[in-house]
Amino acid sequence: MFSTLISPAAEAPPRTRFLQLLGTALAARQFVRLTLAKYRGSEAGLERLLVRPVQLRGEACLQLVYRHTTKDITKNHPVAEALAVLDGLIGPSFQNAHLHTRTQEVQLTVKEKGGRDKSLLRVGKVAAAEGAAADDTPEDEDGTPAHNREKHRLLSLDRPFWVDLGVTTAQHQLIPAMSRKWRQINKFTEVFASAMAASPLADALADRPVGVFDFGCGKGYLTFAMHDWLRAQGRVPQVTGVELREELVALCNDSAARHGLEGLRFDAGDVRHYTPVGLDVMVALHACDIATDYAIDFGLRAGASIIMCSPCCHKQVRPQMKTPPLLRPMLQHGVHLGQEAEMVTDSLRALLLDAAGYDTQVFEFVSLEHTNKNKMILAVKRSETPDGHADAVRAQIRDIKKFYGIREQCLETLIAARDINSVRSTP
Question: How far is the C-alpha of 184 from the C-alpha of 173, rounded, in Å?
Fold first, then answer.
């Protein structure tokens, strides 16, 4: 909670005071992370800047991750050099700066009105438990805190394909800039392993192929990880990564072929036009807006045992929503309305999966400092569904839509169209 508000009338301008607090936190080794947002510069696609401490060859540095719409660019700087870079970015390019230390949370909002500085600085204390748990320790080049034991990982860095994907060096050492990505890959694999254990696939014969489709797979980090984990469990993987960018498809196919990874391939394609063949697990992370609905429907059509989605860009439902009178004081703020639309959209998706016979969870996949797309919908097919359960869930869906005045939700429309076609084709 913010306990102190420093206005433009304070002795030092808010921006100057913020930079002083940042420098003090770094000098005292209290720095945890820094996020810059509300970009107003000229670089196309740049959304925010994430800053964290790292150790490179024994030297304290700051890692700056420039998060764009479709890519991340990582640069490492010695602390003094990084501070100079940040000084030139905070204010001119980024209007919001959010600093976390072990003891404080500091937020700067840069504003100018009529040529006068109207910036605000908020300083709050961090709860003792939160401060103690903060991961502010600079990491070694293997991505682990310098004074901590190596955590157990389901994946190994010695696989040669990690070199091709830019995760490790030729000596199989984790590249420092990829340490957070490596954590994400391992966290995803943990979720995948748990879902496999809870699904009908857990009881399948070991020599039965496991068909996995990863839509929007990008550079294939998770696709390679799932294939590698399945092989390590003695299963027979048939893993396919589907990606629109042909250069990434070529990169991943070359690596899979070079290292003899049977049962792993990459196709150039779009989930909306893909025919499901032999699918057991459907993965679609960061599919924009209704692409997530098409991906889920793909999994349902294929009778997938596991459906894993990380939705983003919730555009379809928001303009349809009519604000209930009771909620208008809360939803008059755009940020709250956006969060409400996201919650409603993903709740409807989860309920539709529930009605279709899946045990469904919606949870935070990774913490916010790792990525701004951090929600996962995980659905595992049930062995049986109680009588009347699906009808009761569908009634809940109707009530939610009526409450918000929602006319259409893409996944529901896709399912309904499929059901109608099924009835028409029945003799």
Answer: 17
Question: What pLDDT, on the 0 to 100 scale, is given for residue 36?
Answer: 94
The reported pLDDT for the residue numbered 11 is: 59
Contact 415, 300 (CB under 8 A): yes
For range 96-121, the mean pLDDT: 86
The Cα 43–Cα 228 span in angstroms is 37
Query: Can you give the length of the chain in residues?
Result: 427
70-97 as b/e: b if 16+ CB within 10 A: eeeebebbebeebbeebeebbbebbbeb
pLDDT(196) > 70? yes
Pairing of strands 59-68, 46-56: antiparallel
CB of 312 closer than 8 Å to CB of 345: no
| Contact assessment for residue 67 and residue 54, using Cβ atoms and an 8 Å cutoff | no
Quote the CA–CA distance of 106 and 121 in Å, as a whole number: 7
Report the candidate in 91, 92, 87, 86 with the shortest Cα–Cα distance to residue 66: 86
How far separated are the first and last CA of the chain, in Å rounded? 64
Residues 12, 15, 19, 21: is their CA dihedral positive or negative?
Answer: positive
Name 204's Cβ contacts closer than 8 Å, sequence gap at least 6: 210
Q: Tell me the C-alpha distance between 297 and 291, whole Å.
A: 10
What is the residue-averaged pLDDT of the chain? 84
Which tens digit of pLDDT belongs to each residue from 17-59? 999 999 988 988 889 999 999 999 888 889 899 999 988 877 8
Phi, psi of 101 (to 5 degrees): -120, 180
Q: Are 249 and 243 in contact (CB under 8 A)?
A: yes
